[in-house]
Predict the structure.
Amino acid sequence: MAEQLTEKQQKALAFIRAEIRNHGRPPTLREIGAEIGVSSTNGVRYLLDTLERKGYLSRSPMLSRAIELTERTAVLFPMDDAREVPLIGRVAAGIPLLATENLEGHIRVDRSIASSDETFALRVRGDSMTDAGILEGDVIFAKPQDTANPGDIVVALLGEEATVKYYRPQTDRICLEPANRYYSPIVVERGTPGFRILGRVIGLMRKL
Amino acid sequence: MAEQLTEKQQKALAFIRAEIRNHGRPPTLREIGAEIGVSSTNGVRYLLDTLERKGYLSRSPMLSRAIELTERTAVLFPMDDAREVPLIGRVAAGIPLLATENLEGHIRVDRSIASSDETFALRVRGDSMTDAGILEGDVIFAKPQDTANPGDIVVALLGEEATVKYYRPQTDRICLEPANRYYSPIVVERGTPGFRILGRVIGLMRKL
DNA sequence: TTTCATGGCTGAGCAGCTGACGGAAAAACA
DNA sequence: TGTTTTTCCGTCAGCTGCTCAGCCATGAAA
């Protein structure tokens, strides 16, 4: 599609990128306005809305300097494309997934693998997914979401254990199916306390 | 000189750095506090003052998220712990493996995976190694070497085709064994022209 | 022992920064 | 001419850094 960018839009993108590079932080609306010659924050806001709609950046509402450039901008202005992903160790019940207590470390991977902002990593225990090419000791990357499509491989929390399985929802219960003929599916009633989908598996890394 | 940093100070620095890398913007005082367990913004402020005095970062007053990390921090947390690995496309005979003609692109991975300097990456074609958890489309990482230990998974060049198999050397010939009962081993006489071990597989990455 | 200073922190409140938005006007376009 | 796009101005609410007044533990000084 490659939508056209106006001169102001290009200037704004270039400025945002330069600020991130030079100061490690995106500019505010007023800083952008001063740079590109727009005196109203609403003018800048409108401009950024347009850029967001065209897919050149994404923003988080009600946060200062919450502008993130997207892949598309990276093509225009190439940047470092590695991402740092938290590696979850053991999952402790009642503690948020990404709390320090659960963190084993960080791992850097290409953005093409860890596409989402909040991607997390988990070391696989057990051999219940070997037929899907997921072996014990592998590190899987998951995108946080509390639901999934049938057939997705998901990370699910069962009590204090996180488990990786195929997601097979049924009308009143959920079937977590292993990829190993020696294991049986885990069937959980919907609404079972302590059961939760943590995320969908989007990638994998193995060290031999 | 390397002044001592308390645990909280290290956590704060690591968090700030991770936020800058992953979101392109430094965190606010309250975000830092929530992460490292300091409930008062003044506590965080005090902590940052100390870090600034020790030279690990610099700040601009009265601006949001105005934290910049200094060289010294870069030493503590090396920014370049990711490695850029060449992704080989098709292997053309007679051309060095890493020549531009063979290159499909670059991919960034953690040093823990791509341990060697010369690590290269290859996209897997075919399903001959599925029982070893290596599926079609996976990217494997290999360390260049022209020999290997029995049982290693290797990348071997057979004419113009690169193939991934178990390495089973025998007295006067070499057996390349697939991990899939529907395939037969490839047996090659030692010294066959056009046959060469390109490297040993040391890691793998999959995008789902 | 007591006293004092210091470092590290809490909690509350304030002021300035920052983004969101409505209304109007200018500019561009059909 | 009417319509859409873009900008300005002003205002507001929420985010964010800063200040002030303490608390507590540690350690040195009296």
Notes: Residues 59 and 66 of chain A are 5 Å apart (CA to CA). Chain A touches chain B at residues 20, 23-26, 28, 64-69, 81-84, 100, 106-110, 112-113, 117, 130, 133-135, 138, 153, 201-208 (CB under 8 Å). The domain at 85-205 of chain A is CATH 2.10.109.10 (Umud Fragment, subunit A).
